[in-house]
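Researcher: Going back to the complex we discussed earlier. I've cleaned up the inputs and rechecked each line, so this should be the final set. Can you rerun the prediction on the complete assembly and write out the structure?
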Amino acid sequence: MFNKRLVIALTALSFMLSISLMAYRVNPASAYTLIGGKQNFYSPGVVAFNWGNLTDTDTIWRQAFLQASYNWDSTQSTVSWGRVSSGTNNIMQVYYAQNSYEYGRTQLSISSGIITKAWMEINQYSLQNKSWNFKVSVAGHEQGHGFGLGESSVDPALMNQSRDRETIYKPQADDIRGINDIY
Amino acid sequence: MNLKTKKFLTVTLGLLLIGTAFTTYLKDSSGSSPVTEAQIGTISTASSGTKLFLDIPVYNNVQDLLQLSDIVVVGKVVGKGGSRNLARNPANPKDEASDRKIISQEYSFMVEEWVKGDGSNRIDIVYPEYTVIDEQQIQEPIVALEPGHRYVLFLKQGMSNTYYGVGEPWQFQLLNGQAKLRTAVDDKFQELVGLSEEELVSKIKNASK
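Model: Rerun complete. Updated structure for the full complex:
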């Protein structure tokens, strides 16, 4: 009698465990998205970029991109940005779109799974009166697209458009999972 | 089949099931991502292999929409106006940008009720439609306003006494007593869908108290 009960209990336990694991697989916590392309490395783990229209006097915008880049670099992700003076199609710069709620945009060209051009831009018009953290959050979000990440629906995530940009200005666990999935 | 064999078979079967599930889970965790296409605020011009991603404000409740809007109005789109280039030179915004054009559509809006803010009974709304850069036209993710239709709009004040959307969503079309949320953003906006006109306006007014 005892053995029969043990067998039934073991079977039920096995079944429930299996279902739980399968359900977790179907609905994983991670919800980053990928754009279907990745960067070639300039040196191991480093993706090259250059300034576009940002001059030496555009300190605030350069610093926002650099801080965002540092934030990516200081995470457990496998990639970082490194500036070169020529020979890259990865550009970080500002644009000025009046009467637009856009904070930033990234235009990517992808060929055979490789990102051949990434223009990572932040909108000076909508960001000029925003805080430092806000600017860094937008710059980091665009850099995430430059690496090959799409948008995320996870909260918190730097790649989530609904994020609080005052507090979410560094890559979060979901973003890093996405990066480590690509590279 | 004796009890011992049955027990052995059952435990083996159970272990096999667990093993299969766990292996499948591990494969999923370390392999491709669960979703491979970007879903929010993304437009793709497939022919050229160019993709555009926008970082835009997305709000999920009336309180945030109301707080961040300069004005909230109920009324009707009475016509389309001209278009203008919204792209300016970052170094000198009085000048147009030299590297791109962001072409907008203007709409004339007859205000029935100022829910937030105050002003004349007619306002102009500017809505970016497409960008031209490197001789390539990139469509913005928009839902055009429809002349002749009534709306509740959440707006910010822009240049030259014009207004523009506060973020997504910013327009609710009023039709047969319903307030239909209109947005190009693929989000659930659970608190903002399925409202009647009366419910939406009431929500806004309650949130402003």
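Model: Worth noting: Residues 66 and 158 of chain A are 16 Å apart (CA to CA).
Researcher: Good, that matches what I expected from the previous run.
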